[in-house]
Design goal:
There is one protein chain. By secondary structure, the chain is of the alpha+beta class. It is built from 4 helices and 16 strands. The strands form 4 sheets. A 6-stranded mixed β-sheet has the order 9-6-11-4-3-16, with helices on one face. Strand 13 and strand 14 form a beta hairpin. The longest helix is centred in the N-terminal third of the chain and has 13 residues. About 15% of the residues have low confidence.
Length: about 250
Amino acid sequence: MMTAVQRLHDVCKATFTMSAPPSAQALQRVRTILDSIQASDVGLDEVDAMSQERGFGFFGTNGRRGRHTPMVARWAPPISYLHLYECEDFSMGIFCLPTSAQIPLHNHPGMTVLSKLLYGSMHVKAYDWVNPCDEKLNSDPSVPRSAKLVVNRVLTAPCETATLHPTSGGNIHAFTAVTPCAVLDVLAPPYSAVTGRHCTYYREAHSVGSNPGGIIANGEHREESQVETMLEEYLPPDDFVVQRGEYRGPRVGP
């Protein structure tokens, strides 16, 4: 009997090619299978993830004069990436995040990405460029670029698969774990240094035309999604580490 993750591989193989972008109908077929996949289908256990995190925590000490030392992490479980499959047309992988872990804002140049939250709760913040085709801005990484906020919410499993496109849907996004969580990503095509699809990280420089709450701008009410933010490239902090984990689910392949 074919496993759910193998069905996902097969429909991705039929959908994603370098010769043409996928049709809306083809993407819906991929989403339908992703929507049906559960953590157990890829060898993950939410209860086990919760119990493992209990071994991590915080400590504080009082000095000889009673001075309180701020609570700091004793140690922290790293973000793990579980590799399932990759070819030139698409890749499949799972990010496992402990509570409060964050994957900073990063882009997906020329890529379609489908993300399925397998368990837990995760805050997603995502932007699209205001002028995605501005070659002058694209060629100078030192110049902050204007982006519009399109997603800013907490997702809790089970929920529908999220889809982003090369210039829409929140191509530049960040994940923050509200609880231990895992997300299955399909990237089409995958990152590739050879073809110029590099992963670039960004941070928010400042908002344009609004206060941080997005309530009043120049006397005019504006929704949060209308607020433009300047994003600048940067190197992620040293404590942002993604380790390669061991995928223990069913075999995936041609």
